[in-house]
């Protein structure tokens, strides 16, 4: 939770700001959405990555092999025993690369599905009473978010596997094998293959990520509509 709050806030705020800068340059093209999403994910990831490493370590340890007592203790142990500040950014390279398909493609997919639904004007859209424009309904936001989450995770999952292996390198006996992004990718593929290696756990990841992203984008859409309505009402008054 300590990681999710700042990560989500930074991701959406920075996405809107990057989009304002890039959209006029290519007339709201797909590239502007992809780049804006990628930069937003990279910005949020860079500022919260140490907490992601800590989360992986705390989730990995079991009761009879407890190494870390909590968030602060995990940060202290990783910092003092594994190489200082750089240890808190293990796997950052793979994560940074994965921001393009994971977050960048996620935002692009969401915006694309949203535009398609708004053009159809079916049961997943509604008319905004304040502005008269067609907007997504809460269910429409969930559907677009779910499809965007599934699409982006399918593309980015191998890099997520690489990131996790590198984050856990200091907590497992054979962690020396996971020293760099490319070498870790090659090691996982060579030892376990594609389905049981780079895509291992994808199905359960769908069960976790798809509803998460669906709710995230739906709340994002509803919040934007509420804020826009508030702005319109304030101006009319």
Automatic annotation (TrEMBL):
A Gene Ontology biological process term: transmembrane transport
A Pfam short name: Mito_carr
Single GO cellular component term: mitochondrial inner membrane
Location of this chain's protein in the cell: Mitochondrion inner membrane
Keywords of this entry: Membrane, Mitochondrion, Mitochondrion inner membrane, Repeat, Transmembrane, Transport
Repeat positions for Solcar: 28-116, 136-226
Main location: mitochondrion
Membrane topology reported for the UniProt record: Multi-pass membrane protein
UniProt family annotation: Belongs to the mitochondrial carrier (TC 2.A.29) family.
PANTHER family assigned: SOLUTE CARRIER FAMILY 25 (PTHR24089)
Protein name in UniProt: Solute carrier family 25 member 16
Organism (species): Acropora cervicornis (Staghorn coral)
């Amino acid at each position: 939770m300590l990681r999710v709050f700042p990560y989500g806030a930074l991701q959406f705020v920075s996405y809107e700001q990057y989009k304002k800068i890039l959209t006029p340059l290519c007339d709201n093209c797909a590239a502007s959405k992809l780049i804006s999403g990628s930069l937003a994910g990279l910005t949020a990831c860079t500022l919260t990555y140490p907490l992601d490493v800590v989360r992986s370590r705390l989730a990995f340890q079991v009761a009879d092999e407890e190494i870390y007592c909590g968030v602060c203790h995990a940060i202290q142990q990783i910092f003092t025993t594994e190489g200082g500040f750089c240890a808190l950014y293990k796997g950052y390279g793979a994560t940074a690369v994965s921001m393009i398909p994971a977050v960048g493609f996620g935002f692009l997919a969401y915006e694309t599905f949203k535009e398609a639904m708004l053009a159809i004007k079916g049961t997943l859209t509604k008319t905004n009473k304040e502005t008269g424009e067609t907007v997504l309904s809460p269910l429409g936001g969930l559907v677009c978010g779910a499809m965007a989450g599934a699409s982006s995770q399918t593309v980015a999952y191998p890099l997520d596997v690489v990131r996790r292996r590198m984050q856990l390198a200091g907590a497992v006996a054979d962690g020396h094998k996971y020293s760099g992004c490319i070498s870790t990718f090659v090691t996982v593929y060579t030892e376990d293959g594609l389905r049981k290696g780079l895509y291992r756990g994808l199905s359960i990841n769908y069960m976790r990520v798809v509803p998460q992203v669906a709710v995230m984008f739906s709340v994002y859409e509803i919040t934007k509509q509420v804020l826009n309505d508030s702005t319109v009402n304030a101006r009319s008054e």
